[in-house]
Amino acid sequence: MTDTERPDAGARDTAPGDHANHSHTRTDACAPAASARTVAEQLAIVLASVAPLSPVRVELDAARGLVLAEDVLTVTDTPPFDNSAMDGYAVIRSDLLSASPQNPITLPVIADLAAGTAENPRLLPGQVARIMTGAPIPDGADAVVPIEDTDQGIERVAIVRAPGAAAHVRRAGEDAHAGDRVLRAGSVLWPTRVAAAASAGTSSVLVHPAPRVAVISTGSELVTPGSPTRRGQIPDSNSFLLSAAVAEAGGIAVRIGAVPDDDDVLRALLAELAGSVDVIVLSGGVSVGAYDVVKAVLKPLGTVDFGPVKMQPGKPQGFGRWPATEQAAGPLIFALPGNPVSAYVSFEVFVRPALQRLLGRPILHRRTVTATVVDGWRSPPGRAQYMPVIVTNRTDGTENGTRTEARPASRGGSGSHLVAGLAQASGLAIVPEDATHIRGGDVITVMLTS
Amino acid sequence: MTDTERPDAGARDTAPGDHANHSHTRTDACAPAASARTVAEQLAIVLASVAPLSPVRVELDAARGLVLAEDVLTVTDTPPFDNSAMDGYAVIRSDLLSASPQNPITLPVIADLAAGTAENPRLLPGQVARIMTGAPIPDGADAVVPIEDTDQGIERVAIVRAPGAAAHVRRAGEDAHAGDRVLRAGSVLWPTRVAAAASAGTSSVLVHPAPRVAVISTGSELVTPGSPTRRGQIPDSNSFLLSAAVAEAGGIAVRIGAVPDDDDVLRALLAELAGSVDVIVLSGGVSVGAYDVVKAVLKPLGTVDFGPVKMQPGKPQGFGRWPATEQAAGPLIFALPGNPVSAYVSFEVFVRPALQRLLGRPILHRRTVTATVVDGWRSPPGRAQYMPVIVTNRTDGTENGTRTEARPASRGGSGSHLVAGLAQASGLAIVPEDATHIRGGDVITVMLTS
Prior knowledge:
Chains A, B: Pathway: Cofactor biosynthesis; molybdopterin biosynthesis. Chains A, B: It is an enzyme of class 2 (transferase). Chains A, B: Residues 1-29, 394-416 are annotated as: Disordered. The structure is a homodimer. Chain A is an alpha/beta fold. Chain A folds into 4 domains: 10-54 and 211-358, Molybdenum Cofactor Biosythetic Enzyme, Chain A, CATH 3.40.980; 56-78 and 174-208, Alpha-Beta Complex (Molybdopterin biosynthesis moea protein, domain 2), CATH 3.90.105; 83-170, Molybdopterin biosynthesis moeA protein, domain 3; 368-448, MoeA, C-terminal, domain IV (Beta-clip, Beta Barrel), CATH 2.40.340. Helices cover 16% and strands 27% of the residues of chain A. The first copy, chain A, is elongated and about 95 Å long. Chains A and B meet through α2, β15, α3 and α7 of A and α2, β15, α3 and α7 of B.
């Protein structure tokens, strides 16, 4: 089921006891269970299970944003032949040493060399060839006179300025020699790097592929948005939230949508998906309810851990793998809480860094800034809190100009206007475990999410 | 043809005279032509021609990153019915005021309400119903006792704690009332905003669509990367560079690749594309050469301007529109220089902001930082210079911890290792028009590009 509690309603975020054993222990919402892990410990467990996906070769058109799994070497010298850096005339410099506006030197034009030409007319002393930018320098020529220093003649040309030595000649291999490394394994393929691979004469590159990520919401109350709802039903929003977040993080989202609280249905779906995706992200069904379908299906596998994490929201967290087959390891499984804020925070804190590692990216984490708190709030002791905040830059009257401010995205407490408030947040303020009151004027670390 | 000059080879970056009129005027590379515009003037001309694309309705799955062209209102109250925020028992609070661990109160359980149920059994005094998170509160009940405060009984349940008034009941409309605005027109659809629209009961949204952008390299010397090259030929890299940059900016790139320096071929291609794309980005063929095909085809239209811009690189810039038909305005046309660094800088400075405006995004420009220069360089007077730089953060020993540093991405001058150097740059340092020497220790503004 979807855990639709308020993210700050700590009592719901209790350590998930095993419902089947009818434990009657009351877990204080504000004190983590002895076995609870810190966020850092949980993240270390997640990242220790994740390595860049096995490299595949892709065409350059599909390579943007992916990470190289090989060095890219130039196929030929770059440029591959001496060529003109200007539109003008290829010349023998010694013919023109005395040229000046007062004393133009007029010479016969024996060829017209456009870019792309394969022609290579040999210049004899006293001859020139018209040449366009990028065209190969003909044998015998040793400099280029720019068009502006001539009368632009077609059959004969008057030249009014002596060229410098090797003027406007781009030498073969000037940018790179054949076999030079132009890109390193591990580089993220920004547009300029895609271009560098193209320029090196490469049509495809070996990269870590984007992970395919199935996204499933669980809960018999969930219907597709826009469908009519009867009493008891609400629209599924988590599969949209998490699919969009997967895509933004560089993954390929396979949005399955909502499935009912039915163990057999979920088990069959996961088994079917296991062969075709790298990651499965579930939300809902991980708490203490009678119909916590995700726990019911995954716990017996023995490969998914449901240890609580000392964070708020997001305390119940399932992480592991679908069982391996003889052919392949099973996909990673993240079982997130069903509350949208809890699911989103859990995604940002655990799933997104894992996706970055699957992609082979060197930077796993979002950028953080320090910000001054505007309106304070409370935080549970013993748990790191992630508070959705609106981050603004405000002129502060000092010479430095601006200060960065953070205020909770939901007015009137983080419980009300929950999804609408989250939608305005541009960051998550990170409250350390030991803090209980965040006050206006406090300086806090904020993970920027947009 | 591709303008393959060095980006710092100022002499090539002369004001593009009309070759056909055989102007013999020598234009000093370091002094802009009288008619040259500043970067700000050129950008103002570009942006004045660009408005957000006409809205279209898209499914939520296709909406991420696009900008809303309508307010999104909730279809029903959110939540649409009173529901439980906890797994536990729906109760009549007045039955339980004296409950305590020492004095449990045991009551009959008349129903088991799962999330998604449409059941609504009316509680009479002394009765309770088992209820899961998200399930509707039955008529008569006015509070929820969490499972932890009970013996989890199925037919009868012992309750050890009195609930507070309306405890753990989420009220219908608590987050939003039907008709409330949850998202504003003009909002960028981040993942959490896609989720807010879903949660509001919306399956599709009215957005400004992503612009379709055709990308064409011109130059008879260009071949597809990976194809064998003969003397005179080089791989096309600009169409890969600019297509990837378009995609990164949020556009839909239609990479046409390289076309030869043939007026008829280019004219026919542009005419064919005009009906199916919003923007055409060309590179090469905008300078003073005899085969400057882009200028030759576009200038006679009268709708594309080739005014020089006081910048380096990127001085020759074509901007305008393909002629309108009775049905529609023609696509925007950007004719960029062919040198890869010039093309990239021109894209970042003019094309990318235009694409952001077509998308309806509120922020048109890249983030800038101030950085301390490590290795200096020279800049032409009278022209704003955009120098590809590597930006790093370095501990500086002060309390603030780090300082941001910028060094030219190409060692040994910006001409050598041109494409490979550009591929390492993470920003463009912006040198003002009047500066001629940038020295180590200078503080400079850098546009961050990755």
